[in-house]
Amino acid sequence: MNWYVLFVLVVKEDKLCSLLRKKGLDAFIPMYEYYRRDIKGNAIKPLFPGYIFVRSDLEQLDFDQFLFNIKEPKEGLIKELKKADVSALRDDEIKMFEYMFDSKGILRMSQAFIEDKRAKIYKGPLVHYQDHIVKVDKHNKLATLDLEFMDRRFVAGLEITSKIR
Questions:
Q1: How would you classify the pairing of strands 152-160 and 86-87?
Q2: How far is CA 9 from the centre of its chain?
Q3: Smallest Cα–Cα separation from 5: which of 143, 125, 105?
Q4: Which of 59, 88, 99, 125 has its CA 20 to 30 A from that of 30?
Q5: Sheet with 31-36, edge to edge strand ranges
Q6: How many Å apart are CA 147 and CA 164, to the nearest integer?
């Protein structure tokens, strides 16, 4: 399975993502679940605003041709991110996203407790990446990770609970 990344206008990403799905591609806008204090509950928002991810069996040249052959207006598509005719995502990045995202492309909240001034993840997608947490914001229930993608650090939802017994 290959993963491709499309850079799009933020205001057009939903429409373009729907078009790609109608054409049979597994396209999604990567989202993350976070805590909203104003509603005292969880919500989701784009993890990388302006980017659409596509999972496909198509090889790079076939995917490029598929995009080119779409007859409908592809409003908002700026470019496909790639390096020398190779998919924008490396195998290690694909593996990381497969661990983190659920089937809908959402990075769900993780649960942790604090031990020795470090977050110990006991539930959620960050369980494989707890050593990458560099900052915990208990107030906003967020974790900043030292993992970078497209020159941005990851932020993920993290609920701190009391220690499991």
A1: unpaired
A2: 17
A3: 105
A4: 59
A5: 41-46, 31-36, 106-107
A6: 27
119 close to 137: Cβ distance less than 8 angstroms:
no
CA 58 to chain CA centroid, nearest Å: 21
Whether residue 8 contacts residue 51, with contact meaning beta carbons closer than 8 Å, is answered with: yes
- The size of the chain, in residues, is 165
What CA–CA distance (Å, rounded) separates 74 from 59? Answer: 21
Q: What's the predicted TM-score (pTM) here?
A: 0.87
19 Cβ contact list (under 8 Å, min separation 6): 70, 72, 74
Q: Which pair of tokens denotes residue 149?
A: 């993608």
Write out the two tokens for 66: 């598929």
List pLDDT tens digits, range 141-164: 999 999 887 777 889 999 998 776
Pairing of strands 133-137, 142-149: antiparallel
158/165 Cα distance (integer angstroms): 19
- Hey, what's the torsion of the CAs at 91, 94, 95, 98, to 10 degrees? -160
Give the model confidence (pLDDT) of 63-88 as tens digits.
989 998 888 888 888 888 877 666 66
